[in-house]
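Batch job 17 of 40 flagged for manual review because the log was empty.
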Amino acid sequence: MNPQVLNYEPELALFTNDPLQVYENIIQFSATLQASLYLECNDKTAVEVQQIAARYYEQISLLKDLDGNDRFLTAKTA
């Protein structure tokens, strides 16, 4: 793994048995606060994160990074 990632990303974000569960916990928590959510996603799981967000939010967008990969999720309450 790139040292830039290892040196600056939280260990929980990099090494977990169920990364989608981490996203679900964040999404569920923000939804209980009725907060807007702006979340950076792993491009390999972004569609699955979008599906999780759809269980809690009505207005969801998946945005691409500069390389054209699905990378950012926005979610807002109605």
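Reviewer: the log was empty due to a logging misconfiguration, but the result itself is present. The radius of gyration is 13 Å. Unflagging and moving on to job 18.
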